[in-house]
Fold each of these.
Amino acid sequence: MAQTGLLLITDITGYTKYVHQTELEHAKSSLADLLHLLIDYTRLPLILSKLEGDAVFAYASSEGFLQGQTLVEMLESTYLAFRKALELMIRNTTCTCAACRSLKDLDLKFLVHYGSFTIQKLNEYRELLGNDVNLVHRLTKNHIKEQTGFGAYAAYTEASIEKMGLREISGSMVSHRETFADVGEVHLYVQNMHDVWERRVNEVRITAQKNNMMGQLEFYFPYPPEVMWQYIIAPEFRSVINGSEYQEFKDLSAGRAGIGSLYVCAHGKNQILQPILDWEPFEGYTTSDLIMGAQYLHTIQVVPAGDGTNLKYSVGVLEISPAKFLILKLMTRGFFVYKKSMFAKLRQRIDQDVFERGAFVTIESRISTQAVTDTVANHFPTGE
């Protein structure tokens, strides 16, 4: 039966130049490592369909829990991890073979579409069929690099922008069009991933640390980190943690929450503004507020724990005297008792939401190591 959802191809570029008949072992090893990384970063509710040579094809059902901004951040975090791995490979090799010298030419592109498809199970793979599946694959052969100069990018179709609620965020992307004889014109919105790398690679994180920490609580949730991240940043769920009547975002950047944005917390007639000082998707974030003249840091970390997640809530305070620090620490004991009850309420609220959705994705989406090995072997010329 046909269903609708998100279609995503993550494709390693510069690969043809990278493959050399006489240096297959080094090329095979590097490609396998990079493919494993892309698989690991294909997070729920995305489900791996199959490996396609130097690309990973994944999808997410329309019933899955995936917010628009989270999708963008998922691709950004994948690219950052890919670039860091690539930079590490380049720095750590002393080999001068053509394959190792060509590592610097590898990069990554993402093609994102939203449409209908049917699923056919083949061993550990899920083969997707349909016109929209064909379209997203055809989009891998495009003129984006020639027309925009982007060496690494995420390209979103109009359908994916509309269905994922990315209209405001797309305003920061570059408009691009591809034309196919049988399909006609396809409108794309393209994000330059090199800009993401330059902006994020040297970013300094601000979190509650041991030297300024007033206390820490930890709570287990039976849901994966990528799902918990979406819950803890959503104002309607964050209001449960803070005990506020409601919360909302303010000062979004191109439609996105992040460093520099504010959480507005309503308590009766009063509104409390909490600036976001740190924002690391799928890992944690930090907000700040002023209490008794002291700047408090509230950090929530998302830590994988088996099949679920530990949320670590830490409170720190900045730049005060040791004496005042001790006084404030004594005063916060009751605060942590209160927060513990609020996180218990959050667990109940999330459990209820998951139950009401009735479509929480728990499908095992890992592809075996042997499947990666076979894909790499099949993709290289034989005759060694």
Note: The chain has two domains: 3-201, 210-357.
Amino acid sequence: MIAWLAALRGRALAEPGRCEPREAATLGRADLLSVVLAGLHFVLLGLALTALSGATGLGFFSWILTFLGFGLWFGQVSNANAHELIHRADRRLHRLGQWVFTSLLFGHHCSAHRLVHHRFVATPDDPSTAEKGESFYAFAARSWPGAFVAGYEMEAALRRGKPLWRARLENPYLVYLAGAAGFVVLVGAVFGLDGLVAYLLLAGYAQLQLLLSDYVQHYGLLR
């Protein structure tokens, strides 16, 4: 399924023998596919929590397999698709990607990736670049909070000079944190404690997959 989606997205982005500008129909179809996948993410998240909260009576091994299946989708498809969306100039598409990441309790990645990682990749100032000899688990423990703080600092710097109240209201970290809290409360209210635990585990699993991608891609690089 993942390979099929990658091939489909590739066809949407470019057709053989043609070179069109960003506004062309082929890229419009790519944006449409991203929107569909983002919508599907929220549908699948609801289905996953319904199944994993005990409502479907899954046994232990069935629960594990269901968790891994949904978790793989969120980590490999939802993360990758949200990454594409947050780079879109269209604010509606950007916000859609932001909400996908926020639903995985990883909203700060939108700021940390665009404002910190893109600028400082392969330098000591990038929390998402693994140091040579650093294990993945040491990297993950350093990268997550490091990216959170660095992204916030960059967003705050962009609003320096504005009235404090306005700078705080405009900082997207308000959306990331309030949105994450809202998802946690909503999941707990709808799916109970078992559903909330499953949600936190799914979000953590999806985050680990994105962190692992950063670890592998940039391990030991310096410039």
Note: The longest helix spans residues 173-218.
Amino acid sequence: MTWEDSFKVIIAALGAVGGSALIILGLSSWLGKVWANRILEKDKFKYAQELESLRSATQNFHSSLSLTNATYFETKKAYAEKRVVAIAEVWKSFVEFREKYPPEIFWLDILVKEEYGEFYTNPKFTNFKNGTDLGVISDIMPKELDLSRPFMDDITYQLFGTYTGTVARLCFYLNKCCSGNTPEYDWRNDDGVVRILSAGLSDVEFQQFQNEKWSVQILLNFLQFRISNHLKSIATGADLAKEAMDHAVEFSKVVTAIRDDETLKKANKALHRTSQ
């Protein structure tokens, strides 16, 4: 039997049963659409649940980040306030030390190296020995600076240490002169002074000190200038502002990453597809 013969037989059969076959075919088509829609509705509900779960998790994480961010800035605010108080305490300690250290060390500027022997031979300088005793210097050294350490940077303490260490070493040098043990070298070439200044000054500053042969007065004024300028700088909170800005940038990156999460994109795409 050819295909044409088979087609004729089918047409004849349909004619015999009237329109019932057409009804059956139509019913089958309708049932197919119903089941297809049910499957789509089921998938849509499934994706909607997944999307809602993702949205909820994302919102919770975003809220957690926001709380962390707010806590960070509140902590930094409190820290900045503590730092301002610490700066005032550090400067107070510096001024107190400056007012108490032996002014006799400035006589190293008044006399030249060849005259330092007079600190021992000239009766006018008799009291210089007691005034520059290291025990006296130890007593006036700031004792409470460490209380402010958590709120200050290392540079502050390095500069402060350079200043106090230089004063102490100059007192030691002058005390040797007053004891009749005048060093053969100038105070600028004293090993202790060189060690302290080479660590506390930049290479350029240290070379300038040596080449220009700064006086005691110029040296201490320069160190005081460095300390006051640095305290002014950190008092403005520039370093904390930079840290806060870096934190804000990182926070923004995290939020953007959440927004661009591929899983969330796929869920949205699936929900859009099932709604069509």
Note: Residues 101-236 form one domain.
Amino acid sequence: AESFSAQVIIMSHPGQIQNGYTPVLDCHTSHIATKFKNIDEKMDRRTGKTIEANPKFVKNGDACMVTLEPSKPMVVEAFSDYPPLGRFAVRDMRQTVAVGVIKSVVKKEAAAKGAKK
């Protein structure tokens, strides 16, 4: 996947999470550093309604929609299409900082078989 958008719930982060934050994302069996490219909206955890569009930061207890960009190629799917590849944990400082589900994926074009890089 080139990038994907996900609903994330921040559980235990000591400070604030801003655009550009790069923790390790554990999705299925892969553990890859992934950048919070853009925090699209902060939302109410119970109703799912948007509280704030394009917030500067999110903190503990917040739910948000985020555009994530993996640093290396990563296999993910939307939670609605394939649940095991649609769930992930965000880890930093050896603890789980947040959890989330993937809403949509921007797939990378597959290279032709046998093509040299």
Note: The mean pLDDT is 92.
